[in-house]
Amino acid sequence: MQSRTFLRIEGDLVSLVTEVTDREVTLPDLLAELTSSQLAMTPRLPTGCRLWLRSGSTARSVFVVEQPPQRRTIAYHASHRYDAEPVSYRLALPYVVFVVSTYADQIEGLATFFRTEPIASLDAPLYCSTLPNTSDDGLVCLGSVRVSGASVGERVDALVGAFWGSRFNSDLRRHPLPFTGGFRAWASRSRRDPLAALSLTYDPYWRSLRQVVASMAGLAATDLPVATPDSSASTEAEVFTPEPMPSDERGDADALAS
Q1: Spatial CA neighbour of 160 closest among 208, 111, 205, 209
Q2: What is the rounded end-to-end Cα distance, in angstroms, of the chain?
Q3: Nearest to 45 by CA among 61, 58, 56
Q4: What share of the chain is helix, strand, coil (3-state, %, to 5)?
Q5: Which helix (H) or strand (E) element contains residue 4?
Q6: DSSP strand E in 11-155: where?
């Protein structure tokens, strides 16, 4: 630290000034430091994103998207005949949770689950999805789905939209419904009560949201924050909790899932 005292004359006013210099660097060194610095920018998050995890150790990100209870129309191919037409069913759904993993901003995996109330923390329990093309482990068969977008958030939005807009089929044994009668009975219940899906009893999934997110990020569950996600926590992974946003009624039918 250096100091100097001098007289400053401004018009007819004279001031005695003491100036303190904390540090001095050359201009080339300053410019080199500025150009080498990188700003951490929050990406454009997907619609309805409730949690965002970024792992520096695995170069992966995981987005948790929650969609509120609503009725959606799905197209279901019950037959394997090439010329068979799908049947459309309008179904009342509970909270639908999508967990999407990315590597270098490219889609890597998708899993989906049910809930009967909004996500309140990273330790939220999950229920098995009864939607087609979803395994008992929650993983979605992406088949020939290809999505694009200017940002990873747009690509995740496109992926979720492609899921809803796809022609579902019976290639994967979906988790059984909590009642008999299949999709026809489900659609009938949905006509009578748009929120019927919230009062049903679904099979609990064997892992919590924390465990699913950690697994898809390539981390151990203990690497994630202990309590409700907090972006200021100092851990191997950063978890962010953006404000929930409303979802669209139906995604674009621009992909074929198998």
Answers
A1: 111
A2: 69
A3: 61
A4: 20, 30, 50
A5: strand 2-10
A6: 13-21, 49-55, 60-67, 70-77, 87-93, 95-103, 106-115, 127-128
What's phi and psi for 79, nearest 5 deg?
A: -100, 150
Question: How many angstroms separate the CA atoms of 91 and 133, rounded?
Answer: 16
Query: How is residue 169 written in tokens?
Result: 């089929």
Report whether 99 contacts 64 (CB < 8 A).
Answer: yes
The residues, any chain, with a CB within 8 Å of residue 120's CB and separated by 6 or more, are 228
Instruction: Choose among 53, 68, 156: nearest CA to 114.
Output: 68
Token pair in block for residue 15 = 């001031």
Per-residue pLDDT of the chain (258 residues; tens, 9 = 90+): 667 787 777 777 878 878 777 777 787 776 666 555 444 456 789 999 999 998 887 788 999 999 999 999 999 987 666 667 889 999 999 999 999 999 988 888 999 999 999 999 999 999 999 998 888 889 887 766 778 888 889 999 999 999 998 888 877 777 888 889 899 999 999 999 999 999 999 999 999 999 999 999 999 998 887 754 444 443 445 555 555 444 444 443 333 333
Are the CB atoms for 165 and 248 separated by under 8 Å?
no
| CB distance 256 to 97 below 8 Å | no
What is the pTM assigned to this prediction? 0.72
